[in-house]
Amino acid sequence: MTFRIRAIAAAWMLALCPLAAHAEPAQEFMLENGMKIIVKEDHRAPTAAHMVWYRIGSMDELNGTTGVAHALEHMMFKGTTSLKPGEFSARVAALGGRENAFTSKDYTAYYQQIEKSRLEAVMALEADRMANLVFDKDEFAREIKVVMEERRLRTEDQASARVYEALNAAAFVAHPYHHPIVGWMDDLQHMTVEDAKAWHDRFYAPNNATMVVTGDVDAAQVRALAEKYFGKIPVKSIPVTRPQNEPLQQGVRRITVKAPAENPYVALAFKAPTLRDVEKDDDVHALDVLSAVLDGFDNARLPARLVRTERVANSVGASYSSNARGPVLFVLDGTPAAGTTTEQLEKLLRDEVRRVAQEGVTEEELKRVKNQLIASQIYKRDSVFGQAMEIGVMEMTGISHKQIDRIIEKLGQVTAKQVQDVAARYFNEDQLTVATLVPLPLTDRKPAAPPAGLRH
């Protein structure tokens, strides 16, 4: 049985990834307690990726407890009623596997990569900490210090991270994307073990989770194992979080960040549409293509003109990801070369988008860009773990994994006129937030060592 895909997607699958063309489609099951199970068989190597995704992230936090989703992620490795702190990781290592976790604005996920015969063992471990996590006050006190040091290391000591934290806080005034995933330092300093426990008690339930298993597995056996280890975990009444919709922006917002850095930097963030309906949201697919036109391959417009030809920037970029539970941004950014100011580079970046809006793109350029973009989507499937990630992100952001191939088709159908239209529609000042880094002198202080217990 092959993927039910049509036209361009099928052609690309065969041309670029022949092995994937013979893979089985993902199968989906639902346990009686509401836990979704998605299994994607791929028998090219005797390995498997096992992931449990919770549809809860930093966007669901309340003021005063920002960072609690990430803090709980750390506590998930600190023991259950049957495991000592650190024993979860030790057991996975003893099985020859790798494991970790990550928290985003939209979700929290836990994973193990293992030899296929070890799947049952890691599934039992994951079910245990969903149902039987222990919250020790002393363990939490130690771990929240690790989280605070992680914030210092990855945000406060990194100029670019400080810029993007400030950028999000300015771009989103009402929506909880305003807050950093790691949390504000003051909230971390006042966080308690009860906060973490309440988060787990409220949201960590089978009916708020999706298991994704990919690799050399049998879907029926995975379903049976899921029933065995997760099926007995009781349903919880999951609170419905309020939308906190972002009000309409009226006028450009500007912020300045001063931090030790070698070079100035500027980032322009434009409000852009989120993918909600694969069939109807044509602007989303056109913006994906526009992002690739600007910065999707070696000879894309931004680096070709501003870095290599005019040499007014040391680096430039464009980024856009439409998969999210909340609002998204289309970002243009760059580091100016000597003799160029951030104000000048800001104008030059916007000029490139205006050029597309006014002149469009040629059919040859469009074809080349779409080839690159679609190929990058398909190459991700070379990895068993990459397949699990793709499925999980789609599901957590409200798009069925069954639509993955249709998105590739839609990208292939984007026209030059659609690219020109979105370049004209979404890049005005009423949707723009600009963050500028003003570099301060670098100190002679050596970077701090990563905190003990830092997981990802």
UniProtKB/TrEMBL annotation:
<comment type="similarity">
    <text>Belongs to the peptidase M16 family.</text>
</comment>
<dbReference type="GO" id="GO:0008233">
    <property type="term" value="F:peptidase activity"/>
</dbReference>
<dbReference type="InterPro" id="IPR050626">
    <property type="entry name" value="Peptidase_M16"/>
</dbReference>
<feature type="signal peptide">
    <location>
        <begin position="1"/>
        <end position="23"/>
    </location>
</feature>
<dbReference type="InterPro" id="IPR007863">
    <property type="entry name" value="Peptidase_M16_C"/>
</dbReference>
<dbReference type="InterPro" id="IPR011765">
    <property type="entry name" value="Pept_M16_N"/>
</dbReference>
<dbReference type="GO" id="GO:0006508">
    <property type="term" value="P:proteolysis"/>
</dbReference>
<keyword id="KW-0645">Protease</keyword>
<feature type="domain" description="Peptidase M16 N-terminal">
    <location>
        <begin position="37"/>
        <end position="182"/>
    </location>
</feature>
<keyword id="KW-0482">Metalloprotease</keyword>
<feature type="domain" description="Peptidase M16 C-terminal">
    <location>
        <begin position="191"/>
        <end position="373"/>
    </location>
</feature>
<keyword id="KW-0732">Signal</keyword>
<dbReference type="Pfam" id="PF00675">
    <property type="entry name" value="Peptidase_M16"/>
</dbReference>
<protein>
    <submittedName>
        <fullName>Zinc protease</fullName>
    </submittedName>
</protein>
<dbReference type="InterPro" id="IPR011249">
    <property type="entry name" value="Metalloenz_LuxS/M16"/>
</dbReference>
<keyword id="KW-0862">Zinc</keyword>
<dbReference type="Pfam" id="PF05193">
    <property type="entry name" value="Peptidase_M16_C"/>
</dbReference>
<keyword id="KW-0378">Hydrolase</keyword>
